[in-house]
């Protein structure tokens, strides 16, 4: 019961000085907002990354090159050629599905009559297995037929944002749009997906048949191959076989490094998790510095409060309050103020973190319970650290001297 009375007295003291308590709590709230907001946004990004990698399947690996970023790379790692990926596909089709894709542009502009999109459209050429691995579904229309894929016909699947911009309420199916200087018939509108892990989005993408995409390049494009193995228990052997096969197709010399990259998607997930882990640590350090400044400010305010309430302390001691009771009162008052700021900071951090996620088109509301528990714990620690010395100073005041204080 004694502890309950300490808490009641601390709450009464906080309520009697509302403005000072609010301003002090606001200092703490800023630090907790930074902590929870950063961790919430990072959790949303991590969730999006993992879900996008999961769509590729755990039993898959990717083969590509880094061509185009540096001219010197062309001599060391020439891009995957069309005939190479077709040969690879034919020789690996009994081991797994072989998705082949190429990106024609990241900044294309699509037009329909007088309407046009912003120049931020991604145009992708793909084969049938790419659509399967990416789990591409249509909200309207259909996917490509085998004949359209084989003949390289001018047909396209468009993202939901493109359909909204160009057609509004008009049905886009079987309408012709212009992109990259060519006319394409829209056969399907993709389901809304949101942003992927690379910051792109199928909602702002146009997919065309791989054979058609190849003829749009003035030079040979570079291709990316993703193999999803039929039997997970054979994954390691199939991946090793695929590497040897691609080396043979590309005429890599014995003992020389491979002229391509082969990477399992699980490894990519682990690397991305490390990056988000580093971001979390960085966010925690920034938040710690903010909270350190907040704790100094709180200690200063509590010291001022002790000075202002010297006569009150003297009166309480004169009627029998012990130094321990005085110390507990001021310590719990500091903790109460910190917890008020912590609750406000957690709420604002949740809203800001998820707001950042929505700006990145990650349509998932994240509630990081770990970050929230950490925020409450940090507030208690800050309250104890900032309130201990002022409460100790208050408990050591001489009651006679305190009553004389003006």
TrEMBL record:
The keyword Cell division does not apply. Coiled coil: none annotated. It is a multi-pass membrane protein. InterPro entries: ABC3_permease_C (IPR003838), MacB_PCD (IPR025857), Macrolide_Exporter_MacB (IPR050250). Its main location: membrane. The chain crosses the membrane at residues 21-45, 278-307, 328-352, 364-389. This is Putative ABC transport system permease protein. It comes from Thermonema lapsum.
